[in-house]
Write a structure and sequence with these properties.
about 80 residues, mainly alpha, globular
């Protein structure tokens, strides 16, 4: 899509990561040619569409003013 790719570190439950890895390996060949990166990107895009529709009238969320920090979720 032309957007540059950047590395991101996230923590996932081991069972979810293993299932995603299994799917990526199983679907790596023709016709899907799926990679773990593509699977993660597709999943995030689908969830972002759902969250925007549910919580922000289908619009993009406002840009953040600072980078995320680890720890507990930010309260609104």
């Amino acid at each position: 899509d032309g957007n540059p790719k950047v590395r991101a570190t996230i923590y996932l439950p081991l069972d979810v990561l293993n299932e995603a890895r299994d799917a990526a390996v199983h679907l790596a060949g023709y016709p899907a040619r799926l990679t773990l990166t593509q699977l993660a990107e597709n999943a995030l895009r689908a969830e972002l569409r759902r969250l925007k529709a549910l919580y922000n009238n289908g619009q993009d969320f406002p840009r953040r003013d600072e980078e995320l920090r680890g720890g507990r979720p930010i309260a609104a």
